[in-house]
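Notebook entry, structure prediction.
Reason for the run: the old model in the group folder had no record of what sequence produced it. Starting over properly, with the input documented here first.
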Amino acid sequence: MQPENTTSPTRRRIMFGLAASGVALGAGAVGLRLAEAARTADFSHPAYAAWKKAEKAGLSDIEYMIVCAHLAPSAHNIQPWHFAVDDDMIVIHADLTRNIGAADPDNRQLHQSLGCALENLIVAAAHLGYRATPSIPEGPIGRQSIRLAVKLTKDRGAGATLPEGMFDAIFARMTNRGAYDLATPVPVPLRAALSGGITDDLVIGLADRGSADAAYITSTMRMAARDVVADEAFFRDSMSWWRVDRETLYAKGDGISLHTSEVPLVVKAGLQTFVSDEAWFGDFGRQGEIDGVDGVVGTTPLWGVIASKRKGLGARIRGGRALERIYLEATRSGFAVHPLNYAAEHPRSADVLTRRFGFPLEGEILSVFRIGKGSPLEPSPRRPWRDLIV
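New structure, fully documented this time:
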């Protein structure tokens, strides 16, 4: 089941060129282009404004809760939500136009992203002294409109229900797709906390590096990466959220990018300068996906898998809440999380993992994630939060 780690000749030539390009950073027109591309993030840009709102600073309680919800993780950073306010209620509406197409054909990841936003909103409400009561739609999966209504009731004791540092973790959390330190195991208290958001209709499985289950996840993930890049529609729609240069990243305020990875600055600059859009959407990009997965699966101290006992919209949203709770628990403990969902996205791999862990066949794999000690990376951008209130 273990695939060969091959690199295409085209990709190999480009990567050798990028390694050499560092020498030219200060020389001529090419050097100027590289230097421009290699600049670090401008954190004064509005795309990063929401991350700086760790204090309410003049916002109303409702506005502040919306900012916190907007900082939730979402698949490919698609941010598939907008918000409405009705007296003592905030409503999260799904924006079904912000989807990953063939890479998420029945919106499994989109539904979980809404659950992540809901969890942040509930945590923020408790911090501000409100008891938040969500109304989560149940029923079968479809492309129906989704409305998550959260009723807010003043409760001075609500903040006491939050573990220390949980609210602050909203502003420190990020998806870390880099290598993790294998010498630092996930501590026992954090492992125990990972199950804190698992409701009765969900199950979670954990697998330590070196275990048979972890080896199975690793090989399945590598197989799944190759399956998904071979699927033309899947790969195309997934790459539609890829932001190559900072200008596009800032302008759109969404998507995924090399700039939020641990790739060395000079390599990021070279990729932005020399690799065409056609290459990203072609064999170069496909090989990059494979190389990326092969590179990180071997640096994972602990794997986690969240599944539902029965497939349904409500279970997906609660699965998203559970995933965000895991993010926040890890963040406040100084650890990183990376949902790596190739094995959940492709039917063959999802079936393999379902049977391996003994999950109910009438349910579905919701999320597969890595957790470990990672290096600090820059946050992902956000669209202006005020634009999302309807």
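Summary: Residues 46-171+379-388 form a domain with the NADH Oxidase fold (CATH 3.40.109.30).
The old model has been moved to the deprecated folder.
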